[in-house]
Amino acid sequence: MKIPVSAENSRRLACDASVVEVHNGPDGSVLDVGRRSRSVPPALRRTLEARDRGCRFPGCGLRVTDAHHIEHWADGGETSLKNTLLLCGRHHRLVHEEGVRVFSDANGHAVFFSPGGKAIAASPLPPKLAADPLDELVRRNRERGVAPDWRSGMPRAGRDHDVPWALEAAALEALDASAPLSARLVSLSAQSPADAA
What we know:
Radius of gyration: 26 Å
Structural class: alpha+beta
Largest sheet: 3 strands, antiparallel
Shape: extended
Strand order of the largest sheet: 5-6-7
């Protein structure tokens, strides 16, 4: 059974996949076995994640991403840091199936164009992170006189809890697991948030 797949869909799926092309002759004999370097190796993927820190499409930044070849591998593009960037699934589909184009400028910045050829306004790159971002955050907080501790996220005296009533009710229900579910639901629905406090 053959399942039709568009050329652009095939290219999108193959951006970060391990594929070996096999060219067959009319009689089915193998004529050529292509290279396998289309997939992004783990070390390059880690470097991409450290550099891009999410989808590079202007204004996105989503952290769940695919590695995309700027010059597609099928067109001779190499699998290298300068020719790859991270795109979320939605923007990866826009590039492969909706006509959005991406190029790398002389400084290595990604430049996106709409299907009509208009440049899409760039978002600034996220600031570079220190070797250990957590240590850097602690240092900056100390400079500002901020000393967060385990109580920092808790409500202060006389203020309402930040936990929504529904979550608090679910927690109370879980604690009273000895009662049948129907009895717990009835007792919770009869209470107001003020009654439970």
